[in-house]
Amino acid sequence: SSKPAKAAKNAVKTASKKIAEALTPEVPGAPGGTPTVEEPTTPHDPLPPKEEQGAPQTRTPTGAETGAPTTANGQQGAHLTTAQGARLRDTDHSLKAGPRGPTLLQDHHLREKITHFDHERIPERVVHARGAGAHGVFTAYGTAEQVTRAGFLKEGRETDVFVRFSTVLGSRGSADTVRDARGFATKFYTDEGTFDLVGNNMPVFFIQDAIKFPDIIHAAKPHPDREIPQAQSAHDTFWDFVSLHTEAQHHTLWNMSDRGIPRSYRTMEGFGVHTFRLVNEAGATALAKFHWKPKLGVHSLTWEEAQMLSGMDPDFHRRDLYDAIEAGAFPEWELGIQVLPDTPEETFAGIDLLDPTKIVPEELAAVQLVGKLTLNRTPTNFFAETEQVAFHLGHLPPGIDVTNDPLLQGRLFSYVDTQLTRLGGPNFSQIPINRPHAPVNDMLRDGFHQQAVHAGVAPYRPNSLDGGNPFPAGDDEHAFLDVPVTVTEAPKVRANPASFDDHYSQARLFWLSMSPVEKEHIIRAYTFELGKCYHQAIKERQLQSLANIDPELCAQVATGLGLPTPEPTVPLADVTPSPALSQVGGEWPADGRTVGVVVDPDGDLDDVAPVRAAVFAAGMVPLLIAPHGGVVGDLPVQRTFATGRSVEFDALLLAGAPAPAPDAVPAPDAGTTTVDPRVLLLVEECWRHAKAIGAWGAGTTVLEQVGVTDSPGVVTAGSGAQALASVQELMAAHRVWERFPASVA
Ligand code: HDE
């Protein structure tokens, strides 16, 4: 090569060497320019594994423990390793050809780390994607022993459970408080096999036949072109579907009622929806409907609270559930059954028990309580447990069987099928959260993600090699019993029984069972939802269904929409209301409720500490709200005027009247008020949402400035203790109902 070319090459060499030197960080003790990270802690001995991280049952053909290495657990040793157990020197820098050079393909640690990350997400559930789960225990009262042979319902039996609550429509990241039905799925790990009770917080369903499920879900999910709205039923395709399928009207009415916006998972009922068939020791059968009754009563948010929470705290229900459990306020439900005679007609009081759009009013068949569920432990790992849990209606113990409800029959296919895609293969029952607590001794083998190391050579039967194992169990050995129900001879058809054509009578029953304030909320919900639809024909068609349910309901919604009120096209059903359907009128414990306490750091703080202690003593959670964070006196501040909003609190106490802070949002009436406008807003909202409000001392000034001093449920007291006592009394009714306007009787 020529001289000038050589000189140029050398110049480049020297230049790049200089640049390299300049760029090499001078880090002591780090040859090669790799900076060491200063660790916030020093390595220590491995933490003892948490109890729930212990060995899950490993499966052998005989159901015995294998003693094989168990599933790996996170962060239990001091040293970072690869997935193969090789200790690592550095996980923060990829292996490069020099500090500024390209990354080398040979960096196996980089590739392992990124590859695993790339595959961290699994498909979300096609419905019920957004959910929260918790562990607990079910204790049987023994009151179901006459009707079912199920061992877990025998007196005193304790069974581990995992419950997952969910919304139906939204994606995994959607808000908790949207208007929707809620899933209430319970896995009972019974010693006779797992029982999954996969229910909802509403006792009826939109459709009568599983074959329509893809259709209703396509209609209810976001529109396929723009993928909006998320987790909402207030859109054209939903109302198009339900107005064209009038069998959906009963469930739609439940969704439009306060049941569609629960205050908490802890204050929801649960329902198995379908009719099941129970069989006792003697082989006698009964039909049954399952109910979950919350110890705290059934309570809801107001629509405005629900909407505000979607922005303020989209995780409101999840947080509420986990906060309650961690605080020791364990949520409880009682399991109840309505026991109905197993007649050939499969009807009760004229109600077709195979029609999942119908309830049996509790006044006609009492709900008999058979056990208690207590949720007492939050998941250790959300993904491993709540995401990977797989429910299935076909997970039945001996003593509980299915009926011919065509919705139930289709579900028996769907739940296993969907897990094949969602959990990636047929071995999902080997995932720790899904492992039965009963010994497993199946002849299922191989497949993706096989976790068991099956011994033996003869997974078939009969066989003469594995000692003949396994053998079928006899009737007296806890075998599952397919109840030998007579199947009547009938032509093969795609058709429903005639009784399924009654689409309005029970919707009317529900409407007539509501109190005036609940009716008002229903009217407003329909007016909101239909008001969000663009197509006039859809609104008109839905109004027609409302006319067939109740003319007054229809007229009020029509007025709100500015549309004429149609005449009913069917005779109005003559039904007897069911008072058990109303949420209003009782008194309940206020365990785990939140009480906001507004304090003024410059005011009189004498009563604050005792009031706070008294709220705790009452099993509720006091949250101090102050102009700034940190402490007021020596009490910790949980919410500031910037971070807190009324929707977090079930009741409000005003211990002071904080003056406007420099960072307060300017209010139009500034100058006429002496209180921080954010406190005025807090009180206004609590008042509008019919929450109990109590004030003493300077706090009463706030009430005066909002103009609510003499309003129902607003208490002015001489001391903090008195204010709390009155507020607590009001909270037993959940809300100050008389504060809501009601336009219907
Ligand atoms: Fe489900 N449903 N469903 N469903 N369902 C699912 O299963 C389905 C129905 C319910 O927390 C899916 O694992 C069909 C009624 C709950 O993991 C899927 C039909 C009721 C959950 C499925 C129904 C429910 C699901 C989606 C019509 C109340 C969440 C992911 C015949 C009694 C369970 C999955 C959890 C989940 C199908 C109707 C409750 C696709 C075909 C009625 C609580 O299999």
TrEMBL record:
Pfam family, one: Catalase_C
Matching InterPro entries: Catalase, Catalase_AS, Catalase_clade2, Catalase_clade2_helical, Catalase_core, Catalase_haem_BS, Catalase_immune_responsive, Catalase_large_C
SUPFAM superfamilies: Class I glutamine amidotransferase-like (SSF52317), Heme-dependent catalase-like (SSF56634)
Cofactor(s) the record lists: heme
Ubl conjugation in keyword set: no
Residues in Catalase core domain copies: 81-469
Sample GO molecular function, one term: catalase activity
EC number: 1.11.1.6
UniProt keyword annotations, A-Z: Heme, Hydrogen peroxide, Iron, Metal-binding, Oxidoreductase, Peroxidase
Domain of life: Bacteria
EC category: oxidoreductase
Chemical reaction(s) catalysed: 2 H2O2 = O2 + 2 H2O
Bias (Low complexity): 24-40, 58-72
Transmembrane segments: none
Disordered, as annotated region: 1-79
UniProt KW Mitochondrion keyword: no
Family: Belongs to the catalase family. HPII subfamily.
Protein purpose: Decomposes hydrogen peroxide into water and oxygen; serves to protect cells from the toxic effects of hydrogen peroxide.
PANTHER family: CATALASE (PTHR42821), CATALASE-B (PTHR42821:SF1)
Name this polypeptide is given: Catalase
